[in-house]
Amino acid sequence: MTEPCFDIAHLAHIELFTDQPDKSLDFFVNVYGLTESGRDGDSVYLRGWDDYEFHSLKLTAGKTTGVGHIAYRTTSEAALQRRVAAIEALGAGIGWTDGDLGHGRAYRFRDPDNHVFEIYYDTRRYEPPASEAPALKNLAQRFHGRGAAVRRIDHVNLLASDVKAIRDFIPKALGSRVTEQIVFGEDDVMGCWFTVNNKTYDLAYTGDHTGAQGRFHHVTYAVDSREEVLRAADIFLENRVYIETGPHKHAVQGTFFLYVYEPAGNRVEVANAGARLILAPDWQPVTWNEDERRKGQAWGLKTIESFHTYGTPPVVEH
Amino acid sequence: MTEPCFDIAHLAHIELFTDQPDKSLDFFVNVYGLTESGRDGDSVYLRGWDDYEFHSLKLTAGKTTGVGHIAYRTTSEAALQRRVAAIEALGAGIGWTDGDLGHGRAYRFRDPDNHVFEIYYDTRRYEPPASEAPALKNLAQRFHGRGAAVRRIDHVNLLASDVKAIRDFIPKALGSRVTEQIVFGEDDVMGCWFTVNNKTYDLAYTGDHTGAQGRFHHVTYAVDSREEVLRAADIFLENRVYIETGPHKHAVQGTFFLYVYEPAGNRVEVANAGARLILAPDWQPVTWNEDERRKGQAWGLKTIESFHTYGTPPVVEH
Amino acid sequence: MTEPCFDIAHLAHIELFTDQPDKSLDFFVNVYGLTESGRDGDSVYLRGWDDYEFHSLKLTAGKTTGVGHIAYRTTSEAALQRRVAAIEALGAGIGWTDGDLGHGRAYRFRDPDNHVFEIYYDTRRYEPPASEAPALKNLAQRFHGRGAAVRRIDHVNLLASDVKAIRDFIPKALGSRVTEQIVFGEDDVMGCWFTVNNKTYDLAYTGDHTGAQGRFHHVTYAVDSREEVLRAADIFLENRVYIETGPHKHAVQGTFFLYVYEPAGNRVEVANAGARLILAPDWQPVTWNEDERRKGQAWGLKTIESFHTYGTPPVVEH
Amino acid sequence: MTEPCFDIAHLAHIELFTDQPDKSLDFFVNVYGLTESGRDGDSVYLRGWDDYEFHSLKLTAGKTTGVGHIAYRTTSEAALQRRVAAIEALGAGIGWTDGDLGHGRAYRFRDPDNHVFEIYYDTRRYEPPASEAPALKNLAQRFHGRGAAVRRIDHVNLLASDVKAIRDFIPKALGSRVTEQIVFGEDDVMGCWFTVNNKTYDLAYTGDHTGAQGRFHHVTYAVDSREEVLRAADIFLENRVYIETGPHKHAVQGTFFLYVYEPAGNRVEVANAGARLILAPDWQPVTWNEDERRKGQAWGLKTIESFHTYGTPPVVEH
């Protein structure tokens, strides 16, 4: 029996594209409540108030929306080397980059749906300026209370045409564990949730039925309580942000969720997982079938249709 | 540079002694909200509704109070062997036991203050009877809502005459990381918090100034929200349980806490950590000095005197 | 200018019919969390833990479901006489009854949709037995924490074929104020919310399009927080109670709501209004038009179809 | 038997003095979360986001701290006349004023401890500018989420050397009901809580043992949940506001409280009462004796000494 893999420490950041950079930045800073830590070229570096790294969101102006890359930090330099070897053996590697404002060199690769990932160990910690220094020294930044005031990056959800192939690939590439999945019929994998640590998931994939590749479903930041999710709903309402669905509780993973679209159209979530963690080293994936999914979310809310169809960038019809 | 150790998966259970077994059991089941999963000799096996193992609290009738042993589960059988070798090298080993109703063979050892620990991999999962089956299959048991309805074991706090020796020992024995500590003056270690995973801590030690050894400060179960901690306070109030301090927020670790004494006198906590996790693989211990501690808890509450002096079993004066 | 009327103190209780009395009683006591205070004939008297009167729900076994009567307590004996005179002038009076286990003589009348109301002043306070005595003497009963543990009766929602006629009648009969209303087009009154005190509403009417009369939409009990509404959703889920819609926030009145059907089919709500009160003595009714209603609930949830159509008793088709 | 009095609708506003007007204003707007609605001379008019009137706090620069006057709005113009007659019969009247930016003419009087009160009916409603218009039309202003974002004025607490005299005076002057009181020994009234409507209290008096008169203990604004009180504690902590005590729950009235000092030294509270209301028209005052008070607050917190001694303005020793 092989031992669990602990090479990857955690989801670190994602790069998100926007074709409305000013409006998106205003949303992420003043409504969602991230803090800017730097700028470089077309990108603004942002983070939640308790993200310990320089950034967890790289917002890059571009011609469209969607995700640029997804980054994980390894547990050590040696672990990084082991992962690179594993990824190269999978034939998925792109190669090394020099990093950016937020971290040192990183190794990039592609998943089977052509999303770009990177892994790195050498990071830059956030050093708060005096105006952002926390009253309690065990926090990365003061609790500023601005907008939804999300605490830290939690997970990312991608779309893929072949989720089954993804379910095979991600554990091999990142050493992730599958914690939950949706399987219709014999083996039609509709959705799959992965974790590299004790969080219930840091990465999810759901089916893309458009024929497009590399698309983005949403990124999620965590808040400390369900009450903060409810409060975020009022913040979004008053700021005329489009609320797609929620607040409600997912049956899958039990997360208390709220989904909105930022001004450029990327879906963004505010969520709370309560005290739920995956502590069992031999956790067995929970599999939901079609009958179970038909019951809707945890308390019976029917899943809104756009949740199954909407992603970024939009699919251009020819 | 050495890599982080991932041999231990999580705190698994503790054995607690009571000299008022009926009253203690009534408290733990009907007021604190644990569920009984079995009995064996003088012991009753109990667990929070989302603890995945057979038990997280072994309540054993005896002549006094305090802790019998503290148990951790390893991430694999091989990891168990590695830890046993490390512990034997420290000269702290006691030897193997056959386990009990809740798990297979386990290796026991002593910390420098003579608390007994055990580590094991082979476990028994909780299998809910039909009456306790959850509506959502990703939970270990239905949310019964009884009493404080605590979700899962969170951490244990022990007393030790030499916390500095403990700070040296635990990382070597369990591969734990020190996440926070209280150090007065140059190097007078007053308290130390350890974790083996992404939780902020699963084990804490604070100073015992009585000259006694092996004493117990408290065990803590997690709930999903601060609101549930507040609700627990009302439950304790109405059930005439002695509330020592809280609800309030610790400056150390930021935990929202509530401490009570179960009928036999052991201190028990209900707590919520919000979304706070230790994700950085190279987290540097946060050290609090005497000036910082003088400010009290996070929002200024002065720490109650008994919190520094009271432990179980009581110290018998001669 | 006439002065506001203060003759009615508060909504006091309703009588609910059930054709599944054992199941309904088990629901109201063990899942919803009311406490039984007495029995008489086919009726069981129930109340929330902080209802100060003997009962706020009279559950009566019968051949069908729906509401028996709705009762308000007056602010004095003289106020009762004034209301009786006003109601008699409206030609709506039925006459005096001797009361029951919960109160003294009461005057009954009918609204234009043939729902039976009663008003009284002479009441019986709940006297908790020792086992239900609260730890704090300003509460009516201990906080028992059983089931959803609702605190007090909050409001009742009735169906009526002509809500406009109701909007005219209720202020004349009870001295209520209209706090909010839904009016489509010029003057098509779809819903109307009334209050006799500082609560945002204690009575609501919405349209019944079936041609039937005297039907019941739901009764609501208040809890102290939105977190308790969320917790109630888990309690209902685990007890296999049908959740119709919620938790979510109403645009009208801003109430955080959760609707379920008790086993016999009557709709029951758990709700929290936050700190919202109607304090202005000259509050002007808030009127919602069709465009505004099309936006759904506060955070965009589309109102579920059954909410517009389902009531009790069921309408028998011939 | 006399009928209850309904002449006074609600506590409307207080005038607070500050000798640090810039710092106090910054606190009330950016940390406490009030919104400025106007300025006039040395005064700034402020209100919570759901206060319906032009202001609920008139902050006036002066040579010291403490309360200028306390204002209640009547339920009608006729009710105002009745109260004036009653107050004049008590010999407590000062006379009419023309009002200010927030309301029309008002009648002023003194309580036995020389605090100045005023009552009025003619008011000015808050009309939000476009930038403050709420998404839901039943709110007075958008939920801005700034600072502690308190919702509405809740109550004021004054100090008096003879609380027993106050207990006699206030019901006669305002028609208030005594809902709770603290009485030591035979009839030593230590504290008294009053209400004019269904709120549990809008006015409280506690003993001033300094020999001074007309002093101020605190003013309180309500938030919708206990979670918002906890959040406010973090906001205060990060903004280096002095937290005196809390968050915790009062035994008296059950309010969840948090007390801080604004920069000039006036004590300010953030509180939540849950769903607790005084609905009984014949509510009997709850009386707490010395033994009961010795138990501390609801969950056992010992009342901090300064709570018994500190008020504004400071007492100058000669």
Interface with most residues:
A-B, 49 and 49 residues
Here the CATH topology of chain A equals 2,3-Dihydroxybiphenyl 1,2-Dioxygenase, domain 1
Low-confidence stretches of chain A: none
Terminus-to-terminus distance of chain A? 50 Å
Number of distinct helices of chain A: 6
Write up this protein.
4 copies of one chain form a homotetramer. With 318 residues, chain A is α/β, with parallel strands linked by helices. Chain A has one domain (8-309): 2,3-Dihydroxybiphenyl 1,2-Dioxygenase, domain 1, CATH 3.10.180. In chain A, 19% of the residues lie in helices and 35% in strands. Chain A is built from 6 helices and 17 strands. In chain A, the strands form 2 sheets. In chain A, strands 14-15-16-13-9-12-11-10-17 form a 9-stranded mixed sheet. An 8-stranded mixed sheet of chain A has the order 2-3-4-1-5-8-7-6. Chain A is globular. The first copy, chain A, starts with 7 loop residues before the first strand and ends in a 9-residue tail after the last helix. The mean pLDDT of chain A is 97. The interface between B and D is medium-sized, with 19 and 19 residues.
Summary keywords:
alpha/beta, eight-stranded mixed β-sheet, 318 residues, homotetramer, 2,3-Dihydroxybiphenyl 1,2-Dioxygenase, domain 1, nine-stranded mixed β-sheet, 19% helix, globular
